[in-house]
Design goal:
Helices cover 27% and strands 26% of the residues. With 446 residues, the protein is α/β, with parallel strands linked by helices. It has a domain at 2-58. Strands 1, 2, 3, 8, 9, 10, 11, 12, 13 and 16 form a ten-stranded mixed sheet that branches. Strands 6-5-4-15-17-18 form a six-stranded parallel sheet, sandwiched between helices. The protein has a two-stranded antiparallel sheet with strand order 7-14. Helix 4 (144-152) runs parallel beside helix 12 (363-371). The longest helix has 18 residues, at 175-192.
């Protein structure tokens, strides 16, 4: 089996609120019987058409591995649990977001938002910074597909004290890189108490090749994914989370171009990593994260010079592994089909709002739309995505577009306090008034 990203042009507008099912059906109808769609993202749209990139698993027909045959699924929340205020923070991987699109450079955003809410739920690329992961104690580190399913209402999250993290390494032909990865794992065990039941070195089963879609998104191809999945299924009783480290094939010049681009080049590695971990977490229901290995010593020993602060963490790392080990150590467990309000479990009823870059439409955006979750879109976090969020059928006041994350924190504080965010701005408009004449509602303009 192998994984690819494909682009589809979709016309028409959904006739009801279930936009997820509409796009899912449009894409599935164009796939062959042995292909399974695992996710999609809308990269560009107008009033009447959409361009979607979809993650497709090929060669699945005769596999014994369990697939989500019923599709994405949505379980609408019956109420919002207001006993706590929890924020879902999204920065899509591989779209060149100027904040959070590089090497853990949205970490300060997580810390900012964590100060004005009870929990922040976010995904690895937001805080992964090679040897650095400064995720605050009230943040939950979950793989992107897990966050999507949480918002869809089909899973819940159970916070943990610690996980057994199985480490799966490429059996690199140059022993220096394997030794560095093993030393990183042992450093984590000795310094912050990582529970690692073992390191598995594989000769086949992790082959990632990075590339770009027509939209400019970082994507790629992954071959022989079934070998890796079969290995992980056999050892399922040994671990609670999976850390993977392997070589990602990219053109040699990307290493120089990325560091010299001053943050303008879309990170070529993150997209294919997300494809891998999305598949593993979806099919095995476990937290997972991936870090790349250097291909050869020449690349590892090259001097990139003084680089943009957003990519600096990658310029000073040897293995890029430490950030995912720390994140996975306390990544919450996945609970399927939770009962709303179950004690000790966070589900979609506990999500108070979602924060994301402006112009991004993916499964989390559409799930929040359907669930009635307030969405705060940040204009300053520019990416390659080209969508007008205002075209979606939001409820009154459900979408708030702000300039930056400072403003986002202010809107969160207002929502948490139960006040209308607009009430602290000036000028303040008059309330609309209407009268009832002969059972006809007549609006009176101020």
């Amino acid at each position: 089996m192998h994984l690819v990203e494909r682009t589809f042009e979709i016309g028409g507008i959904p006739v009801d609120l279930n936009w997820i099912k509409y796009f899912e059906n449009e894409i599935k109808n164009r796939l062959s019987p042995d292909e399974v769609m695992l996710r999609f993202v809308i990269t560009k749209s107008s009033k009447t058409w959409f361009v979607a990139d979809a993650l497709v698993l090929c060669g699945a027909k005769n596999s014994e591995i369990r697939f989500p045959r019923d599709g994405l699924g949505v379980k609408l929340r019956p109420f919002e649990d207001t006993s706590s205020f929890n924020v879902a923070l999204i920065v899509p991987t591989g779209v060149g977001a100027v904040i959070g699109g590089h090497a853990g450079d949205a970490g300060p955003v997580v810390k900012l938002l964590s100060a004005v809410c009870d929990y922040v739920i976010t995904h690895p690329n937001v805080v992964n910074a090679s040897d650095i992961n400064e995720i605050p104690g009230n943040a939950l580190y979950v793989e992107g597909s897990v966050l999507s399913r949480l918002l869809l209402g089909t899973i819940g999250l159970q916070p943990v004290r610690g996980n057994r993290v199985l480490v799966v390494l490429d059996d690199h032909p140059d022993e220096i890189f394997t030794n560095a990865a093993v030393n990183s794992v042992n450093a984590a065990r000795a310094t912050y108490g990582l529970d690692c039941p073992g390191i598995v070195r594989v000769k086949k089963g992790i082959r990632l090749k990075a590339g770009y879609a027509k939209s400019g998104r970082a994507v790629g191809e992954i071959s022989e994914i079934d070998l890796l999945l079969e290995l992980l299924q056999r050892r399922r009783h040994e671990y609670d989370a999976i850390a993977l480290s392997s070589v990602i094939e990219v053109p040699r010049e990307y290493h120089v171009q990325y560091f010299q681009s001053l943050g303008t080049m879309v990170n070529p590695w993150g997209g294919v990593e997300a494809m891998l971990t999305h598949t593993i977490s979806t099919l095995l229901d476990v937290p997972s994260a991936h870090s790349p290995m250097f291909e050869i010593r020449e690349i590892a020993n090259s001097d990139p010079g003084i680089v943009d602060p957003r990519v600096a963490a990658e310029a000073v790392s040897c293995t890029f592994l430490q950030c995912i080990l720390k994140g996975l150590q306390r990544s919450p467990r996945i609970v399927n089909n939770p009962e709303h309000g179950q004690r000790g479990l966070m589900d979609v009823c506990n999500i108070s709002c979602m924060v994301m870059p402006d112009k991004c439409i993916g499964i989390p955006t559409l799930a929040a739309l359907m669930q009635g979750i307030p969405v705060i879109a940040v204009r300053e976090n520019v990416s390659i995505m080209e969508n007008d969020l205002a075209r979606l059928p939001w409820k009154e006041g459900q979408l708030t577009i702000v300039e930056n994350y400072w403003e986002a924190a202010g809107v969160i504080a207002a929502l948490k306090s139960g006040i209308a965010p607009a009430s602290v701005r000036r000028p303040i408009s008059l309330v609309s008034t209407s009268i009832l004449e002969d059972n006809v509602d007549v609006k009176i303009l101020p």
